[in-house]
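S.,

Sequence below, as promised.
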Amino acid sequence: MDEDPAFYETFSKLIQQAIEDFRAKRISDLDYLNKVVDIRNKVVGKVHDDIPDKLSGNEDAMAYFGVIAPLLANDKGRMQNDDLEENSTLSTDNSTLSTDNSTLSTDNSTLSTHNSTLSTHNSSLITHNSSLSTDNSTLSTHHSALITHNSSLITHNSSLITQHSSFIEATADAALAIHGILKKHWKVHFWDDEDAQKQAVNEIDDYLYDELKTNRGIELSLDQMDDIIEKVLQVAKHRSYN
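The prediction came back faster than expected:
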């Protein structure tokens, strides 16, 4: 399991969920059996879900992707936090504007009723007509504001999707780059050769700093980069012995 921890952890969680659903009687005996068999087949067949196409067929890179993604996701979460908060604010504003819209529509209906009732009073009618026109103008303004906020909400959602795609792309590229670096420095008894390991580590460190941190703007601390390198080397070592 150590040769691809993220892969086995995913299916371990799926099995645990199936067991919990079965015990809670949320699924039938047959559904439980089908789920377990499906999970087993995917594990045996090494079927990776949600893996970028560029990693297809490269088991080593897929394993590295699995350990790199959660570590980079912490930074991705910080990058998205402000956008998510603003997205939530826009949703609240959208709801508030919808309520105002409904209230103004009710006022509009009430004013129309008063307009009919007070039709015999010319002076009052003129006053109410003027008020009705003002409220109609306010309603139009709120409609316009609602459309603007909806447009902003759509733009932010699109931005989040784009950012997620960029994150997946960067993680996949990092997995492939690290795979290439380890392959370049690989030699017989690599794990007994500290100099060979140091050369590989230095090149991986340079990639993380130059490509991910500098070129792609992913804020990685030195500790985070060390953590990525440590996890990747652990996986690579286990895979080389299997």
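Helices lie at 5-23, 29-44, 59-117, 122-185, 194-215, 222-240.

Coffee later?
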